[in-house]
Amino acid sequence: MAYEQILYTVANRVGTITLNRPDKLNAWTATMEREVRSAVEEAETDDGVRVMVLTGAGRGFCAGADISLLGAVAQQGVTEHVKERALGGTGAEAKGQVREDFRKKYSYFLATKKPVIAAINGPVVGLGLVIALYCDLRFASDAAQFSTVFARRGLIAEYGMAWMLPRIVGHSNALDLLFSGRTVNAAEALRMRLANRVFPHETFLDQVYEYARELASKVSPRSLAVIKQQVYEAMFQSLGEAFEASEREMLASLDSLDFKEGVAHYIEKRSPAFVGK
User: If I label 216, which of 16, 43, 122, 177 is the partner at 20 to 30 A Cα–Cα?
Assistant: First the structure.
């Protein structure tokens, strides 16, 4: 389908969603929100896509909510339209047994069966950082900058960030970032685990796609889907519950085509040909 504020492309089994308002540092709008969700759903249902990459056009990833929209709210107050925009609308529709927590606005990324990599090419601020947190991995250019910024705008930790951020960077680092609203560079983001990896800006996307293509070609898509679900469900489980779930999933995997192929390609010393079943 045609998009106005994003680009969506597929190559080498990697679907790329590019926020495409470079003149506004890809500031987030209602249109962009709808289009990103649509592209994620398109990639999720496409057997030709095994990994998603979310990035920004130009020199930034996402500068947060469009400031013109925030300015209108500051002048007009919290209207019914503002309430609907801020609170209404879940993510992807429930399919099967999808936890309610993963059907909220933006948290639907966690319910997708395919890995989502945030390729953070520049500034990622406010709502942009919220969205990056809901991606499975965050790879950053050494030119990237990170800020929660909310407290500096009279706002709070939005859209579940108070739950998600401490689980990624730890309690004290999360409070530091949220209290201060300060900007951290890529090196500091890496130290506090906000970024998984940092690459030189000149080769940044090449290295992101090298990793994405390796997942798409060398790893079982069935395993990726199950492991992703295990990890996020475990956030709500006891050790015993996670252990029992892993036993059930292990038995199911031993009966899968991808397990048979995983053993066969290793014995035969050839590249795998996983089918995702």
Answer: 122
pTM of the predicted model, to two decimals? 0.89
What string of pLDDT tens digits covers the 277 residues of the chain? 789 999 999 999 999 999 999 999 999 999 999 999 999 999 999 999 999 999 999 999 999 987 666 555 545 554 454 445 555 555 444 445 789 999 999 999 999 999 999 999 999 999 999 999 999 999 999 999 999 999 999 999 999 999 999 999 999 999 999 999 999 999 999 999 999 999 999 999 999 999 999 999 999 999 999 999 999 999 999 999 999 999 999 999 999 999 999 999 999 999 999 999 9
User: How many angstroms separate the CA atoms of 26 and 58, rounded?
Assistant: 8
Which pair of structure tokens corresponds to residue 116? 């989502």
Fold of 6-215: 2-enoyl-CoA Hydratase; Chain A, domain 1 (3.90.226)
